[in-house]
Amino acid sequence: MRAASQLLPVGAIVTVSYLRRFPLRILILGGDGYLGWPTAMHLSAAGHDVAVVDDFTRRSMHQERGTSSLTPIAPLPDRVSAWREITGRDVEMHVADITDYASLRSIFEQTRPEGIVHYGEIPSAPYSMIDRDHAAYVQQNNVIGTLNVLWAMREVAPDSHLVKLGTMGEYGTPNIDIEEGYIEIAHKGRSDTMLFPKQPGSFYHLTKVHDSNNIHFACRMWGLRATDLNQGVVYGMHTDETQLDDRLLTRFDYDELFGTALNRFAVQAVLGYPLTVYGAGHQTRGFLDIRDTMQCIALALANPAQSGEMRVYNQFTETFSVMELAEVVKEAAVHLGYEVEIDHLDNPRIEAEEHYFNPVHTKLLDLGLKPHLLSETLVESMISGVADYADRIQIDSIAPKTKWR
Amino acid sequence: MRAASQLLPVGAIVTVSYLRRFPLRILILGGDGYLGWPTAMHLSAAGHDVAVVDDFTRRSMHQERGTSSLTPIAPLPDRVSAWREITGRDVEMHVADITDYASLRSIFEQTRPEGIVHYGEIPSAPYSMIDRDHAAYVQQNNVIGTLNVLWAMREVAPDSHLVKLGTMGEYGTPNIDIEEGYIEIAHKGRSDTMLFPKQPGSFYHLTKVHDSNNIHFACRMWGLRATDLNQGVVYGMHTDETQLDDRLLTRFDYDELFGTALNRFAVQAVLGYPLTVYGAGHQTRGFLDIRDTMQCIALALANPAQSGEMRVYNQFTETFSVMELAEVVKEAAVHLGYEVEIDHLDNPRIEAEEHYFNPVHTKLLDLGLKPHLLSETLVESMISGVADYADRIQIDSIAPKTKWR
């Protein structure tokens, strides 16, 4: 990677001594994805030297299902060329499957990363629940991929900082407040600070728990540095960078496997189809704007974990029930002139529909996160964004076909 | 499988209605191993219809390392023939890799198991720490194998009961008492019963944690029945059945990868080599006699978990520090006329050498377990047993070559 010519601070002060220089050499695993590509641009714009790795698994999975992104995304080489053309900056591209250790290690040797942002996993709960083969594929892919990252760090980049994407779905819905990764447990007159017990809701969510346990071990044993981000459900189509040029658009999924609730509702509103709430809709989750994901990653990189530390942040800005989310979309869509109804489907998942949910999420705010909260204005602009691509919507990809039972 | 002609109760009363008949059809995964083969004989002797599955991974691993069992074990077909010759009972043999789902599912269809005893995993912490390839192999093998078992249960034998071997090493050494799988946590005025937080000490131990999380999920989602046995370190060479004929012997490992502390000390005492304690030797662990493993498995099978329940038992009878264990072996060996010294090696592992350790282990006792406690007499008989095979000892296989760091 060539050094970036211009240094743009990312909003926080780097105080850890191992950061010998700024910009950082950053390797983004899954750099062709919904969040990976915008993150690559965001960090490149901030002055870092960015390399991305992807093997286009997500694009292939859409081929398998006959679905695609609502936004017409460019191939990765075209994205990289457009970014260079528009900004003068290079994003180095590597095509590799990170479950192939020889390839990953070679990329580590070529790029000598100081920061590693790891989005390189299969991200779909329903995909992991289709059948045995899909469950095994997701578990093998995610667990071995992350295991490889840990070994590559140990062997090639032991001082680097891993920023790993997990999910709030690892926690499930316990009857106590969810802390950020760890909890002090008093028991029979003694106490200890332990990993917060997890109760994930799919074979996909389980992979993130397995990863966290493997990462925690590698930090304890080898002194690696890691930040485990338990991210909420991300919504939104655009970051500052994706809007610069159509070739820089990121993907926007709304299908039953890769779409998330708010994105799906926006598509349904534009089509005039009822918003499909699973079950009663009282399931409550953490959510955040895609622009806040960009901020959180930059903040984590600028404030790396200590050697031997697996730091855990709960990465979301607000909680909503699915029903509340549907109401927000409905109100915004009606304001834009759409007719919108809300429909309840039999829940294809097995999950509590009435539950306590009060997760702590202060650590990223303490680092300087300035949330973009979900206001009607944003939802309206998101619905308008969806409407721009209305002719690309495949309505039959939305209904849930994968059942947990 | 043919029905056994004679019904021998295994020591506990079967009260759960799904057990439509006794004997049970039992499938033992890893049925050629140190515990698997004695368990097959023990359950067969008790009147159950037993089938075993193995792909001889353990024997292959010894080929890889140039090591072998102290006891001269017969090939599995010879074991099965000898068992038939001596007892008139059949143990059905299947050679298959359980990570191959088609094979496993076919065996489930042929055997329609009511109880599944799952020893079919790679059991060595040091083996998993050799390098990236060994770590990935162990994680892939164990996690996907167990995932396959869960799917085979769901698809073929949804009422069957999984008895899964885990390890006390999953817990690590927290500063609070270790409960049996679950802990009630009071936090900020609310409370919930959660999975006990784990802190495993190797990539192997991590696979058992990953398994437990996957099993817990499958029980919650699909109503499967499982008993997760967090077993201590097993010692001993013989069960009632292994002593019936030389062809029925089980393996006895003492090498750096597959040997456990007490077995290794017995071999060293016989050779007149110092007993090699890792580090200070204050590391404290749970231990049990191989004959008590037989009892625990039989008790778990006779008292199956409820549908939807992952029941967890801590399966050991006593705790000792490694140093205490060395002293016990030294005393017994000296009594038999051996000269014995105790030597401290630099600890190849990363583990706390001074720690609190007070794990609860009452549930198996409540079911009727009658422990064989470690008395000098047993250790003497074990040392004598080892002496019978002194000419087979490969002394250079004992020293630890695999380091955690």
Helix content of chain A: 25-40%
The biggest chain-chain interface is: A-B, 50 and 49 residues
Order of SSEs of chain A: EHEHHEHEHHEEEHEEHEEHEEHEHH
The first-level CATH class of chain A is given as: Alpha Beta
Low-pLDDT windows of residues of chain A: 1-20
State the domain count of chain A: 1
Q: Quickly give the structural class of chain A.
A: alpha/beta
By oligomeric state, this entry counts as homodimer
Percent strand of chain A = 15-25%
Distance between the termini of chain A: 48 Å
How would you sum up the major sheet of chain A? 7 strands, parallel
Notes on the protein architecture:
Chain A is globular, with a radius of gyration of 20 Å. The termini of chain A are far apart. The first copy, chain A, has a single domain (25-397), classed as 3-Layer(aba) Sandwich (Rossmann fold), CATH 3.40.50. The longest helix of chain A is centred in the middle third of the chain and has 25 residues, at 132-156. Mean pLDDT of chain A is 93; it is low at 1-20. Chain A has 12 helices and 14 strands. In chain A, strand 1, helix 1 and strand 2 (49-54) form a beta-alpha-beta unit. Chain A has helices spanning 36-45, 57-65, 76-87, 101-111, 125-128, 132-156, 203-222, 261-271, 290-302, 322-335, 363-367, 376-387; strands spanning 25-29, 49-54, 91-95, 115-118, 161-167, 182-187, 190-195, 225-231, 233-235, 275-278, 284-289, 310-315, 318-321, 342-345. In chain A, the strands form 4 sheets. A 7-stranded parallel beta sheet of chain A has the order 3-2-1-4-5-8-12, sandwiched between helices. In chain A, strands 9-11-13 form a 3-stranded mixed beta sheet. A two-stranded antiparallel ribbon of chain A has the order 6-7. At the A-B interface, helix 6, strand 6, strand 7 and helix 7 of A face helix 6, strand 6, strand 7 and helix 7 of B.
